[in-house]
Amino acid sequence: AQSVAQPEDQVNVAEGNPLTVKCTYSVSGNPYLFWYVQYPNRGLQFLLKYITGDNLVKGSYGFEAEFNKSQTSFHLKKPSALVSDSALYFCAVRAYGGSQGNLIFGKGTKLSVKP
Amino acid sequence: EAGVAQSPRYKIIEKRQSVAFWCNPISGHATLYWYQQILGQGPKLLIQFQNNGVVDDSQLPKDRFSAERLKGVDSTLKIQPAKLEDSAVYLCASSSPQTGNQPQHFGDGTRLSIL
Question: Has residue B109 got a pLDDT over 70?
Answer without folding.
Answer: yes
